[in-house]
């Protein structure tokens, strides 16, 4: 009589942890905490550092940067969903541009997305603050019929994405996937709320 192997347990959904976290002080510790939050929700967190130990030994330059981009792309390909930090980056109004690319990449794959931020102000307010701090000017009312925004900056560029905390193509892709943007003054609390949202949708 042959002994049948026990049935394998289903694999936990793999979640790509995206954002400017990789650039922050104590990034490795922050990712460990984020992975623990994922595990408590029945998910497996995957961060950009995973499988990239060899990168630390390479000289900075175009080839190393391209390698990082390819490795990050491969990690995203192997994940079931993504969670993205939408915090303003380098004291500007907009989020980390690399994370914005990753939102578009995973959205194009039809994967479930969620977002989080410690700054829940509407995007135009962030632009207004940035312009005051960086250039000493103010936004002005835009002449037009509405559309993506009612104000413009001193260069005549429309201040778009009203009603959102970030550019409509970034936050919008998350929302179009069925996701939400979690907001809390504490980064890890906001992250945990986003993971809870993502976990419930992956189980549905």
From TrEMBL:
Pfam families xref list: Nuc_deoxyrib_tr (PF05014)
Keywords: Transferase
GO MF term list: 5-hydroxymethyl-dUMP N-hydrolase activity; transferase activity
Keyword Transcription regulation on entry: no
InterPro entries recorded: 2'-dNMP_N-hydrolase (IPR051239), Nucleoside_deoxyribTrfase (IPR007710)
Any one GO biological process: deoxyribonucleoside monophosphate catabolic process
Listed PANTHER family: 2'-DEOXYNUCLEOSIDE 5'-PHOSPHATE N-HYDROLASE 1
Full protein name: Nucleoside 2-deoxyribosyltransferase
Lineage: Bacteria, Pseudomonadati, Pseudomonadota, Alphaproteobacteria, Acetobacterales
């Amino acid at each position: 009589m042959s002994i049948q192997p026990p049935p394998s347990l289903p694999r936990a959904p793999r979640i790509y942890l995206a954002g400017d976290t990789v650039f922050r002080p104590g990034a490795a510790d922050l990712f460990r905490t984020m992975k623990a939050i994922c595990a408590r929700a029945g998910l497996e967190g995957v961060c950009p550092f995973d499988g990239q130990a060899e990168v630390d030994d390479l000289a900075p330059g175009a080839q190393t940067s391209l390698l990082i981009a390819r490795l990050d792309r491969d990690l995203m390909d192997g994940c079931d969903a993504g969670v993205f930090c939408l915090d303003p980056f380098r004291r500007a109004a907009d989020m980390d541009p690399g994370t914005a690319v990753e939102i578009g990449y995973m959205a194009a794959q039809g994967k479930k997305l969620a977002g989080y931020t410690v700054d829940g102000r509407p995007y135009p307010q962030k632009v207004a603050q940035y312009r005051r701090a960086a250039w000493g000017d103010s936004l002005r009312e835009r002449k037009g019929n509405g559309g993506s925004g009612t104000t413009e900056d001193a260069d005549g560029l429309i201040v778009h994405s009203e009603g959102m905390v970030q550019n409509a193509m970034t936050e919008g892709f998350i929302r179009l996937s069925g996701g939400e943007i979690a907001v809390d003054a504490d980064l890890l609390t906001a992250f945990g709320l986003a993971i809870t949202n993502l976990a419930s949708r992956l189980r549905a």
